[in-house]
Amino acid sequence: MKRSLAARLMPGIRSAILHRTIRTAIRAESLARILMTIERTLFAAADKMRGAMDAGEYKHIALGLLFLRYVSESFQRLHDQLDAEDDADAEDPDEYLAQSVFWVPEEARWSNLAKNSKDPRIGVMIDDAMRAVEASNESLKGALPKVFGRESVDRAMLTGLIDLFTNLKLDGTNDDFDLIGRIYEYCIGEFAGSEGKRGGEFYTPKSVVDTMVEMIEPTRGRVYDPCCGTGGFFVQSEKFIEAHQGSSKDIAVYGQERNHTTFGLARMNLAIRGIFADIRWNSEGTLVRDAFPDERFDYILANPPFNISDWSGELLREDARWRYGSPPAGNANFAWIQHIYAHLSASGIGGVVMANGSMSSMSGGEGDIRRALVEGDAIDAMVALPGQLFYGTQIPACLWIMAKDKSNGIAKDAKLRDRRGEVLFIDARKMGALVAGSRKQKELSAKEVARIATAYHAWRGEPDAGAYEDVPGFCKSASLEEIAKHNFVLTPGRYVGAGAAEDDGEPFEERFERLMAELRGHFAEGRRLEAEIESRLGVLG
After folding, report:
1. Total domain count, the chain
2. Which end of the chain is less crowded, N or C, counting CB atoms within 10 A of the terminal residue's CB?
3. What is the DSSP string of 216-259?
4. Residue 474 belongs to domain with CATH number
5. What is the mean pLDDT of residues 9-16?
6. What is the mean pLDDT of the chain?
7. What is residue 517's three-state secondary structure?
């Protein structure tokens, strides 16, 4: 039978589509490499200027100036547009408020600072600019650093940073603002690495954030982080939504942070991304003084500090959040876990990064709390992460994924299956590779993050994730009865078993002969060394 024209053309069409897809992917990859080069180059140049200044102090200077560059450029773009319109007033702050653009007073605009970068009073001028921006924008009050005029701050360094950021060519497009956001995020991560353990207190490594966000899939609703650091989970949530053709307007962002300087970094980080969030600060911290006691959230993502002993546990013994048991006064891990679960909405999903000890510890009643969580069907999945992911600590970590109602739930508009009586275990300890240029810092690749997330999505019944299957050495769906046999220890390695040995294609006989030859060589070397030692001992005798 003669094929139709469409049928005859289809292979060519497919080929064209394939080639176009490949070209697009190549261009995207090339763009990503270019952007990464810009980020690295800019950070290296900025970091070189800090000299002997502590990284923890310097990051507020560099990131503060980068933020001011961003808001000035954003303001100037809209200012030029309004100036060209007959019926608009470019000097009316309300015009900028209506378009979610920060108003920048004339004395605070980057052009003014760049013009006066070599002025001996430049540090004081930057501080005044920060105060002027805060005074003109209610949402930024108390967020911006005012440390530039201190005697200890090198004026030449400030001049160099201003010149560096001025030379960052921008044309006022959304791509420019995204680039500045990427640079800002990259710098936060690099400064965290420079600070070591202290850096790990305010920054969650990107691959860990990616894993959590990809698993939980925040698409629409209320997103909450009770210890939000610099706001990494919020930024990545927005990226996830954009990647899936959603709108960031579909989520509302809430957070709390105890460290006031980190609180400022978070607000600047979110402002650069155009994310308007309800972020609150108090010196007592979330566990002691919950900023949202009566609120419930659809998605919760958190990386609380590990194994904190001085969290005022004795004062909170009867807190209503401890549905599954009062946490030990000497460790806040299960206080955080239960705080997060208590704040989930009726069908909410929460994820929390925890030290590995939380999966097996029996001290202080933690084993009883963990049992109650399992029997209460609060736990959806457990993920064991590889070591060396976090700055300044070798403590291995894990992910707790909790669901308020495992009989229900929706992900990306798809109904999830009933998962009651089951827990998914994922062992990702063998994943990860050293970050380029580092001897101790690891990260998960995009493929590894996708593998973890896809296993979870398939297990909970998302139609586009494919059928779920247990994979020895990697993932296992375990019943509550099976978990009970392990005394409610939640370490994935206990459940997933050993993976199948990889077949390298070498026949058994050849492998046996090769290994025997190696063994004989070791024996021969041992005999040679033994004879040499005896001869030397003989000389000494």
Report:
1. 2
2. N
3. H---SEEEEETT-TTSHHHHHHHHHHHHTT--GGGEEEEEEES-
4. 3.40.50.150
5. 41
6. 82
7. helix
Same domain, 84 and 145: yes
Residue 96 identity (one-letter amino acid): Y
Residue 266 lies in a domain: yes
Determine the Cα–Cα distance for residues 285 and 259; give it in Å rounded to an integer: 8
* Ramachandran angles phi, psi of 25, nearest 5°: -65, -40
User: Which of 224 and 55 is assigned the larger pLDDT?
Assistant: 224
Separation in Å, CA 450 to CA 54, 133, 349, 467: 37, 41, 19, 15
The token pair at 135 is 């005074």
> What tens digit of pLDDT does each residue of 373-406 get?
999 999 999 999 998 887 656 778 999 999 999 9
Angstrom distance (rounded) from CA 91 to CA 79: 8
pLDDT confidence tier of residue 360, bands split at 50, 70 and 90: very high
Check: CB of residue 349 under 8 Å from CB of residue 401. yes
Instruction: List C-alpha distances in Å: 181 to 75, 369, 446.
Output: 16, 41, 20
Give the pLDDT of residue 58.
78
Q: Which residues contact 180 (CB under 8 A, 6 or more apart)?
A: 66, 69, 70, 73, 168, 170, 272
Residues 466 and 429 reside in one and the same domain: yes
Domain encompassing residue 181: 21-194
For residue 224, which amino acid is it? Y
Distance, CA of 93 to CA of 106 (rounded, Å): 12
Other CB atoms within 10 Å distance of the CB of residue 214: 19
Residues 183 and 212 in one domain: no
pLDDT band at 60 (very low <50, low <70, confident <90, very high): confident
For residue 161, name the pLDDT band (cuts at 50, 70, 90). confident
Summarize the confidence of residues 460-487 as an average pLDDT: 96
pTM reported for the whole predicted model: 0.74
